[in-house]
Amino acid sequence: xxxxxxxxxxxxxxxxxxxxxxxxxxxxxxxxxxxxxxxxxxxxxxxxxxxxxxxxxxxxxxxxxxxxxxxxxxxxxxxxxxxxxxxxxxxxxxxxxxxxxxxxxxxxxxxxxxxxxxxxxxxxxxxxxxxxxxxxxxxxxxxxxxxxxxxxxxxxxxxxxxxxxxxxxxxxxxxxxxxxxxxxxxxxxxxxxxxxxxxxxxxxxxxxxxxxxxxxxxxxxxxxxxxxxxxxxxxxxxxxxxxxxxxxxxxxxx
Length: 254
Prior knowledge:
With about 250 residues, this protein is of the alpha+beta class.
């Protein structure tokens, strides 16, 4: 999900999509996709919106950005040396600037293969064990299994009945130490599209609450690292972690 409004966490004055804000010289999107690819998940659908061409240009020119090149101006020829690439298939959809997250997911339906897929947001970094999340989803058999994590201070608390039946969100709680929030990484079955036919709201709240009403959403508890990168302070903290060599979400080797 990469269709939001201009990022306020980038130094670029004209604004860029938030998932293109950089940590360690790479967009947030790259960090997220790199994590998924460590679990063998290499087919991505990016639901873009605001300045979607920035995302398209990044992937169209991935070789050029990350490799050495020779430009022969006289012959109008470009040679790419020591190509740096990833084993990814990336589909980028222009899902509209003002579309809701539920509408963006609906637009991805024709491009999906198989019964299950993962919905995640392009501004969250984590070390969620994706294999364990998928296994939990397979065992539960619900339409959705949502990873939940500890609050970072600006999140909506989930109403969860043990061991993991989600009853909804937007539940106030003073017991913040025992609270869990949506970590914005969800395994979803294609049966979801029957629920989205008349939905225009947010996927992470409105759709989740509808599934909760019919007992079709469960929680996967994640005790590790998770952080939405929403502010300059968040971005600077992630940059510091990256520069320290101890970025918790970096599960791959250079």
